[in-house]
Amino acid sequence: MIKDYWVIVPAAGIGRRMGADRPKQYLPLLGRPLLSLTLRNILGWSGLAGVVVSLSEQDTYFSHLKEANHPLVHRVIGGAERADSVLSALDFLAQRVSGDTPVLVHDAARPCVSERDIYALLSDNVSSMALLARPACDTIKQSHRVGGETYVEKTVSRENIWLAQTPQRAPLNTLHSCLGKAMEQGVAVTDEASALELFGHSLQLVTGDSDNIKVTHPADIVIAETILRLRYSPTEDKR
Ligand SMILES: Nc1ccn([C@@H]2O[C@H](COP(=O)(O)OP(=O)(O)OP(=O)(O)O)[C@@H](O)[C@H]2O)c(=O)n1
Ligand SMILES: C[C@](O)(CO)[C@H](O)COP(=O)(O)O
């Protein structure tokens, strides 16, 4: 398993789809802020060198988290889009660690990723550029709009269709340069793999669990709480 890797946690979003009174990463899950649970999870991964959390400039919540002053946790100011927030953390790392350092980018909003999936992604047998993902299991429809309504254009074969999760893994210098160039070119990249693909890199897909959900809508809070309740005992919750 690889060691001495860094994890970037983009956590500068506003959680518009959640529609809560604060950014979703600070909503309580099992009585603890979502971002605190995500960081607790990451800080337990073996071989971790450090974590860089990208925060909104207006963030007033982070400093109250248990993990805020952990020696392995660093913070940077994020940007308007997820990619800006990731790039800001990559800029921070590029000034401090060697260019071949493995970097994992993991959404703050995915508190449930399992240790088993992380160790699969970090395995020596896996390519240095890889991501957790799930094969699509529903029937896939392509749509078009007519008069303000949405209609089926066609059914797309789900063979070879995967749903990207995080973490996504790449060497620091490769990801830094690809993401930087993609943004200079004005390409909208919603994950790290897209930026790497754009410049011809081949990424390995590592099958992740379906419980690595991205907390996006209100109902996801209940689902994530259920997953976490099943996984952690009350004693472990004190960490
Ligand atoms: N400018 C942004 C936008 C998003 N993120 C982070 O990227 C992750 C995935 O984004 P998403 O789940 O879409 O979060 P939000 O952008 O906050 O949600 P929404 O799109 O509903 O506003 C989240 O951890 C979010 O905090 C970020 O760091 N900086
Ligand atoms: C990175 C990601 O979580 C992979 O599924 C996703 O692309 C983030 O997308 P969003 O538009 O920020 O929700």
TrEMBL record:
Top-rank taxon, per record: Bacteria
Marked site: Positions MEP for the nucleophilic attack: R158, K214
Q: Which Pfam families match?
A: IspD
Keyword terms of this UniProt record: Isoprene biosynthesis, Nucleotidyltransferase, Transferase
Catalytic activity from the UniProt record = 2-C-methyl-D-erythritol 4-phosphate + CTP + H(+) = 4-CDP-2-C-methyl-D-erythritol + diphosphate
Q: Which CDD domains match?
A: CDP-ME_synthetase (cd02516)
Carries keyword Transferase?
yes
Q: Which NCBIfam families match?
A: ispD (TIGR00453)
Record-given protein name: 2-C-methyl-D-erythritol 4-phosphate cytidylyltransferase
